[in-house]
Amino acid sequence: MSEAPLDQVHLEPQYATARQQAETAALGMWVFLATEVLFFGGMLFAYTYLRATFPEGFAEAARETHVVIGTINTVVLLTSSFTMAWAVHAAEHDRRRATALLLAATALLGLLFLGLKGLEYYKEWQEGVVPGLNFHKDGPNAHVAAMFYYLYFMLTGVHGVHVTIGIGLVALMAVRAWRGGFSARYFTPVEVTGLYWHFVDLVWIFLYPLIYLAGRSGP
Amino acid sequence: MTTATFTGKAEQPTRGAQASYLTAEGFTLRSWLLTKDHKRIAILYTISITLFFFVGGAAATLIRFNLVTPPGLFQPDTYNRLFTMHGIVMVWFFLIPSIPTTMGNFLIPLMIGAKDLAFPRLNLLSWYLFVIAGVLGLVAIFAGGVDTGWTFYTPFSTMYSNGYVVLALAAVFVSGFSSILTGLNFIVSIHRLRAPGLTWYRLPVFCWSNYATALILVLATPILAITLALVAVERLLKVGIFDPALGGDPLLFQHLFWFYSHPAVYIMILPGFGVISEIVPCFARKPLFGYKFVVWSSIAIAGIGFFVWAHHMFVAGISLYAGLVFSLLSYIIAVPSAIKVFNWTATLHKGWISFDAPMLYALGFIGLFTIGGLTGLFVANLAFDVHATDTYFVVAHFHYIMVGGMVSAYFGGLHYWWPKITGRLYPEWWARIAAILIFFGFNLTFFPQFILGYLGMQRRYASYPPEFQIWNVLSSAGASILAVGYALPLFYLGWSLWRGKKAGPNPWAATGLEWRTPSPPPPHNFDVTPTVTRPPYQYRPDPEPQDV
User: Fold this and answer.
1) Which domain does B483 fall in, by range?
2) Chain A within 8 Å of B241 (Cβ-Cβ)?
3) Residue B35, Cβ density class (10 Å: 0-12 exposed, 13-18 middle, ≥19 buried)
């Protein structure tokens, strides 16, 4: 792609026009995101059900999460969505350098998110709240805390995998943009990657209150 | 873009003028393994699932062999592994991919007048995922097997089972992503790649059925994937949310599992509805009766199918009120299924019926599916289900739908489109013999199981009280006939590949865009993008000129 002249769109044989091809790619990503919603939905259902069953145990465990790191991470990820949206806008207006730099910024913010998440995991390992591997909680609600942390690690872990894939895609787009692979006529990959990145961000918008804020309201 | 209309005689397909998809890319293995052509990928899938069909069938053979005598031939543990292998292989490696990945892949682009699916590379990736999943599954089987049943119920699967559970879970997990990608491709292709003039209500019912199936594939499969991942972690780390010993809830697993697996039952029948809706009008030489009802009943089944899952759990400890709601919803979903049966029957009315092999399968389908569907109402009934749960009544019920229904539809479709796929005609008399053998073998195998279940024989046991033997012997006898019926096509279809008569573009004088291109089709299906000017199945009163 990088060697291709600026405005050359590679049209697959099954499409009549470049526009049809671009819109089809976007629809494909939307359908994929529908799948993803249900993928996280299974775990969120389990979370909701168990939290309704063990409200006190869940609140107690949730109060011990690292809310400061979680909040900073929320800001980081929301900012990355902003740079992503800006990157798509820049691509639309044929601003090659801006597109590449904004995509790079998005990827770096994603890396920062993962770094902070890693720090949080490290602290949790030291605190002994990693079920199955290193879990040292006592008390009547210890088994509920184990389930809370199990879901916490599964949810944030699967989310982390998505962020990692997202960083890879965004970085790839940044390189392609820098080499002049996109133009106002052809920026579908940036747009589609943007959809994915916003989805990953959106998942976090649900995880943040469920994990960090659930136990902190009320008595 | 050039277009041509198909109302005149102007564009008779010219055979032999160009290479077909079978020859255009060459004959090397590489040209097949790296192909992006939906038709070649369909062939790859056909070969793969045929292999799995016979693996699952071998397990079924051993099961029926074991049940001929009450003490059984195998140790209970071996028997558990056999029926688990049969279930996992048949559900995830044959039935779910069966029609969508083979005929769906091959025909949807042809039927909508497109050159390929929307995402050809994704299509190939989906096949590779399927192969990886299949290899994982086969490794799990040959390393020693799994004894959980295809349902992986917790806490048995997470704590007590000593089989290769995690490997089997990984196999199903990966196959799930293969399904999702196929579903995604179908949805997007049908939305975006229809030929000019091919409005939604001119779309063949086969496409509608696969569209409805794809909705389920995309929206239900991820739930299975994540649930099985949770089970695998719970098994590996002995920590989780499904085992009561850890404070978890096995019912939570069952809810999540059936939230996928009941819609999956419709994945395993909706594409069959599509095939039958193509075959019946063609061999009755009449338009499909109540096209819109058939179409919307597919969508209704896909939708309502998401809200009936807990009828698998009536005796598992759900509340009476939940039971009532799910029972009622399960009755309601029988309505769209019945609409289809009535519509096919009405299509036959005053039709000019010919009994070629595809039609024999289709007629068999209608009868067997009706029995399967009606007995579904029995087990949707709370009181009767208490009696029938986990008995052979349930086994017979779902085999009437999945084997009597879906496998018949698969074979019907395979024969119907065989000339299109291979360019050759199959030997009609052999095909009719196989169809009839399958119909009688099937009934002899599974009808006795209704009686066994009603009398109280539990499923999943290697042994049984001696008074049940006569019905079991009948069932096993039927299975041997069924096995011959299923093996026959392997020979005569294989023979036809080399010796069959050339088919020509439209041997059945059928409507539909797939018959307007040479058999086998050229690499990009159509030389000029077709334009559609009329609804499907116009066999009467005025078939299109070149059909006559």
Assistant:
1) 34-547
2) yes
3) buried
B47 found inside a domain: yes
- B82, part of any domain: yes
| E strand spans, B499-545 | 529-531
Phi-psi group of A132: left, alpha or beta (phi > 0 → left; psi -120 to 50 → alpha; rest → beta): left
For residue B188, give the nearest of A12, A28, A150 by CB distance.
A28
Model ipTM? 0.92
> Is B283 a domain residue?
yes
> Is some CB atom of chain A closer than 8 A to the CB atom of B223?
yes
Nearest alpha-carbon partner for B294 in B232, B344, B349: B344
If one counts the domains in chain A, the total is 1
| Cα separation, B481 vs B61, whole angstroms | 11
Tell me the residue type at B445. T
Which backbone phi and psi does B203 adopt, to 5 degrees? -75, 135
Distance set, CA A124 to CA A65, A137, A148, B75 (Å): 9, 12, 13, 47
Interaxial angle between packed helices B428-455 and B357-380, expressed in degrees from 0 to 180 and rounded to the nearest 10: 10
Is there a domain that residue B418 lies in? yes
* Whether the Cβ atoms of residue A77 and residue A204 lie closer than 8 Å to each other: yes
From chain A, the residues in CB contact with B218 under 8 A are 31, 34-35
Whole-prediction pTM: 0.94
Domain extent for A191 = 18-213
- Smallest Cβ–Cβ distance between A150 and the set B114, B223, B240 belongs to B240
Q: Does B108 touch chain A (CB under 8 A)?
A: no
Distance separating alpha carbons of residues A201 and A203, to the nearest angstrom: 5
Q: In Å, how far is B524's CA from the nearest CA of chain A?
A: 8
Cα distances (Å, whole numbers) of residue B168 to A31, A76, B45, B264, B266 = 27, 39, 20, 18, 23
Rounded CA-CA distance B446/B443 in Å is: 5
- How far off is chain B from A31, nearest CA to CA, in Å? 6
Instruction: Suggest the residue from B115, B121, B124, B241 to mutate for an interface test with chain A (most A CBs closer than 10 A).
Output: B241
Q: Each residue's pLDDT tens digit in chain B (548 positions)?
A: 334 444 433 344 444 457 899 988 888 999 999 999 999 999 999 999 999 999 999 999 999 999 999 988 999 999 999 999 999 999 999 999 999 999 999 999 999 999 999 999 999 999 999 999 999 999 999 999 999 999 999 999 998 998 899 999 999 999 999 999 999 999 999 999 999 999 999 999 999 999 999 999 999 999 999 999 999 999 999 898 999 998 899 999 999 999 999 999 999 999 999 999 999 999 999 999 999 999 999 999 999 999 999 999 999 999 999 999 999 999 999 999 999 999 999 999 999 999 999 999 999 999 999 999 999 999 999 999 999 999 999 999 999 999 999 999 999 999 999 999 999 999 999 999 999 999 999 999 999 999 999 999 999 999 999 999 999 999 999 999 999 999 999 999 999 999 999 999 999 999 999 999 999 999 999 988 899 998 999 987 655 554 43
Q: How many domains does chain B have?
A: 1
Q: Are B205 and B340 in contact (CB under 8 A)?
A: no
